Amino acid sequence: MSELKMEVGQKFPLTIKRLGINGEGVGFYKRNVVFVKGAIPGEEVTVKLTKVSPKFAEAEILAIRKASEFRQEAPCPVYSECGGCQLQHMTYEAQLMNKRDIVVQAFEKYAKEIGQTAEIRPTIGMDNPWHYRNKSQFQVRKEGKRVYAGLFTEGTNQLLNINDCLVQHPVTSKITVATRKILQKLNIPIYDGKTLNGLVRTIVVRTGMRSGETQVCLVTTRRELPHKEELIERIKKIDPSIVSITQNVNREKTSLIFGPDTFILDGKEAIHEKLGEFAFDLSTRAFFQLNPEQTVHLYNEIKKAAALTGKENVVDAYCGVGTIGMWLAEGAREVRGMDNVDEAIADAKYNARTNDNLQHVRFFPGSADKWLFRWSKEDYRPDVICVDPPRTGLEPGFIRTVLKIKPKLFVYTSCNPSTLARDLKELSKSYNVEYIQPVDMFPQTAQVECVVKLTLKK
């Protein structure tokens, strides 16, 4: 920050220039960066500083002097308290424009040259940007005799009871509310985050958008479940879509939802779901995309970028449960996927076995750079590498291996524009960045995914 002294409580007018990566408005006061939650680019606001640190300040809006044409009333009644969504106060059209701008900003900051030369396309949005999430994980707590289920208010350990989350599939909300009422009625002990006593911690509901099958999981601190039979019977009656009821035991004091042990209380171990033409069995802890409708658009963009002709050897690095590799299989000579998570590889192998025409798709446990290095020694070099890494981006060793073996085409799918820009700067030593395609996987939030096509320099 500049020499100018800024203090908590200070008030001043501010013009909002852009959107920050967490969905807050960004303005500059005497060349100091100020983040303002709930402000929209183009707005003129009066703010009060709530936090001052050496590199930036945070402020709250006191008054909107000139509102953006894209401002709207957030439809969710608990929007400002919840923190799960960040952009409901903005029209969807503006969300899509600003998500593209978040990508542009990341390249301005971390890889200026690429930002100036690569085509950054308009964000691909959803026809209906509501009720798209197929899975909810709501914490359970008790106050007096009332059982609550919801999310913690942003930055606190105060649970916010949520009856109808507008980004969740309606059946997940209906089942969660009914389940917490059953827990209250049967007086089943509820977990206490402070004393760590009690039993039921979390209600997890996942529904198959296309199959219409739903699974309910109770995450508990121990195996014993009082009124077990009556509890199961009552949950089964909530909705005809429920075909699986499970219990997961998590004894640890942790922010992680699941523990290592899952038990079937009623019905099937897994629910069925389809993505495009592929079928998947989803057990309680299996990873699956939270927005299946938009995942189809994302995967089709990956397929478009890969431009397969049937002759290519494809590597699906960071493959998870193998969905991208399977999506590309039709146009590939062979697909090899790898992942460090053994459970994910077991799921990927099962998924490949249970779908037709995937005999040429194979999955391997272990790191991508280890396998690529080993295969290059055996004279196997992929023509196309696809990656979809976690938010931290690609491991440096993997980038070094890619730059050594030089596949003709590299398709990078990213959920973090900052690490994407950093990684592309390294990869651009040998690759041209043809285009960057943002995709809105999580409407109403500040998150944005990108699919990037890179071609080997001649």
From TrEMBL:
One of its GO terms (molecular function) is rRNA (uridine-C5-)-methyltransferase activity. S-adenosyl-L-methionine binds at residues 289, 318, 339, 388. It comes from Solibacillus silvestris (strain StLB046) (Bacillus silvestris). Belongs to the class I-like SAM-binding methyltransferase superfamily. RNA M5U methyltransferase family. CDD domains: AdoMet_MTases (cd02440). GO terms for biological process: rRNA base methylation. PANTHER family: PTHR11061:SF45, RNA M5U METHYLTRANSFERASE. It holds the Pfam family tRNA_U5-meth_tr. NCBIfam families: rumA. InterPro entries: MeTrfase_TrmA_AS, NA-bd_OB-fold, SAM-dependent_MTases_sf, TRAM_dom, U5_MeTrfase_fam. Gene3D superfamilies: 2.40.50.1070, Nucleic acid-binding proteins, Vaccinia Virus protein VP39. This is SAM-dependent methyltransferase.
